[in-house]
Amino acid sequence: MKFREIALENVGLYVGKHTFNLETAPTEGANVVAILGHNGGGKTTFLDSIRLALYGRRSLGPRTAQSTYEDHLLRKISATASSREAAITLSFVRVENGRDISYEITRAWSARGKSIVETLDLVREGQPISDLDRTEYAQYVEDLVPFGLSQLFFFDGEKIQEIADEDGSVGLRDAIRSLLGLDIIDQLQTDLTVYTSRRADQKTSGNIERLLAEKETLQKELAAEQDRRAELQSRCDQAARRVERSEAAYRSEGGRHALSREDALARLRLAEDEQAELSSQLKRAANELLPLSLAPLLVQQLHHRASEARQGNHSNAIRDFVDAFEKRCRTDRSKMNIWSDNHFDDLRSDFGTDRGGQNIHLFAEPDWILQRLGLLSDGRQNLMAQLAAKFDRNRELRAKLKRELEGFDTGQAEKALADLKEAERTLGGLERDLEFRDEAIDRKLRELDTVERRFKQEENALKKLAQEERGSAFALRAQSALASFGSALLKDRISRLQSEFVGCFNRLSRKKSLVSKVEINPTDFSVILIGSDGDTIEKSSLSAGERQIYAISMLWALGKTSGRQLPIVIDTPFSRLDQSHRLSIVRDYLPTASNQVILLCTDTEMTPTLAETLTPHIARTYKLEATTDARRTSVSSVNDLYEELV
Q: Which of 157, 296, 376, 558 is deepest in the core (most CB within 10 A)?
């Protein structure tokens, strides 16, 4: 198969119609079509357009919802085009029964408001295919170029790395089996099973055919459920975005500091309750000692007087005691010989008392006054000041909340709240539907597993019965032969693939003896690399450039092993490679990878040295140049790639 031409009309940056001639001359060594452009110039759109023309919605993935696909087509229509219509026309030729047969696919779509109207036209040898209904065009094209194979032949730099990381995946395994022709053996085995069932007794035959029909029905129902699930997921994502927008609108109503009027009212009520409590505390303080803090000098004088009075009370008590003791001593002549007048004068002098001491009169006991005044000096004044400051702040908050409530548009807030609740209800319903859909898919998977087990059991029973019937016996022998042939073919293809891979990898790698052997698991096609020392090389230990070389080498080896000639379209394959590896790709891979290689890269990746090496293999070159506002691109043909870059 080879591409002849692709025309893009109003697709992405390709405003108007742009046609690329993709013919190559492999017999002359010119098998490469080079397309140069800056980042954002339309290279990826070119690659995506080939996929889109061939596979439509499946180009976005096997389980893409129709709404997601239509949104993708809407975005693909050029924003600056004069009409809201776009089209891709891809023509190619493939060998059928020993001769070249030409095909032309045209996928067109137009916007009708937010919806899309899409058409697919298919022409063979210049004429519509009369034996096909239009609804069968998509399946017919996929039969010509299987979707699984496209992943191994139309890829960008990121896809190369993804393929390298997908060892053992179902998608890669199926694509490789198809590429190596192993899927044909699987289909023959299934056909022989059906044939054998029809040769057996009616009951067994009926069971086999019924189970096969049930299996096919369940597979279709499962695919439909998965499609509906993908559609539902898309609607669920849209509903989630609507909830986010509604929440933002709801928050914007009623000021920066309130989510709703009720919230502001609740905060105001709390502020008023706190204001009342603070006011009560201040009043209690004002009825007690707080006023005294306003006259610190008088408080100081009172403290001094109370201290003196307290000292005077102590002095009076001592003087009374000394007077009583002196009186007793004078009545007792024996003690007068011991205590003289001088002794008593000394006692009175030591305690600061004398017979003429006077009392200081206060409104209360000095000790009680000093204790109360002590309360003013133990931090109560600071507490009172803090209480007053808190009272002022709370009063300002109340005023602010009242202003917010005055500017709050209740109607707008209620409308925003209603929109938010409606969006949340819609999202909740969709999420419940999504859960139900997941449960339905799980049920279908279990049913399918049960049917497949029963089919296997019936098939085994059928084989026993079929041994007594000649035709079935031949079929069984054919199945056995196919199984042996399939096993031998798989072993041979795996062996060839391993050998081809080692040669390709060491040819492209800068370290020529890095890999001496490779082991590929025939079940899941996982790969084990073995170095020259016989030790296993973990892929994680390879550099980013070496992993990319690994992926390209695997694709190259698969193409060689399969013997198929399919076009290879590569977008920016040099991003993770150093100059040495880039030179290996240009010198050793591109000239021999296929009869037709379409290389998309930036002018910074394609250096003059690389261009000089690749020039003998260039069939034609195109240059993409985006306008300064990056809203459209121009396409021009380049005569000499090397001169263009020098």
A: 558
Average pLDDT over residues 357-385: 62
If DSSP codes are grouped into helix, strand and coil, which group holds residue 418? helix
Our CA angle for 179, 185, 191, nearest 5°, is: 130
Question: What is residue 136's DSSP assignment?
Answer: G
Nearest to 551 by CA among 509, 602, 604, 606: 509
**Could you give the 3-state DSSP secondary structure of residue 332?**
coil
Residue 216 phi/psi, 5-degree rounding, is: -65, -40
Q: Strand order in 32-37's β-sheet? A: 154-156, 568-571, 597-601, 32-37, 618-626, 633-638
Q: Fill in the DSSP letter of residue 363.
A: S
Query: Do 444 and 218 touch, CB atoms closer than 8 A?
Result: yes
E strand or H helix at 573 = none
CA dihedral in degrees (424, 427, 429, 434; nearest 10)?
-160
- pTM, entire model: 0.56
* Mean pLDDT calculated for residue range 44-50: 92
In Å, what is the CA distance from 487 to each residue of 243, 459, 476? 56, 20, 16
The Cα 620–Cα 41 span in angstroms is 19
C-alpha 242/C-alpha 239 separation (Å) is: 5
pLDDT digits (tens, 9 = 90+) for 192-229: 776 666 555 444 556 777 888 888 888 888 888 888 88
Contact, 1 vs 54, CB < 8 A? no
Residue 462's alpha-carbon distances to 151, 216, 476, in angstroms, are 39, 20, 10
Give phi and psi for 222, each to the nearest 5: -65, -45
| Cα distances (angstroms) measured from residue 237 to each of 119, 162, 427 | 28, 26, 9
Q: Where are the alpha helices (DSSP H) in 573-634?
A: 579-584, 590-593, 608-614
The C-alpha atoms of residue 466 and residue 459 are separated, in whole angstroms, by 10
Is the Cβ–Cβ distance between 6 and 22 less than 8 Å?
yes
User: Token digits for 239?
Assistant: 């509903």
Positive or negative, the Cα torsion across 383, 387, 392, 394?
A: positive
**Which residue reads 């069932």 in tokens?**
197
Continuous segment of H or E residues that includes residue 44: helix 43-55
pLDDT band at 243 (very low <50, low <70, confident <90, very high): confident
Q: Is 7 helix (H, G, I), strand (E, B) or coil?
A: strand
Q: Compute the half-sphere exposure of residue 622: CA atoms within 13 Å on the CB side of its CA.
A: 22
Among residues 145, 151, 163, 136, the alpha carbon closest in space to that of 61 is found at 151
Q: CA 259, CA 250: separation in Å to the nearest integer?
A: 7
Beta-carbon contacts of 459 under 8 Å, excluding residues fewer than 6 positions away, are 193, 197, 208
If residue 636 lies in a helix (H) or strand (E), which one and from where to where? strand 633-638
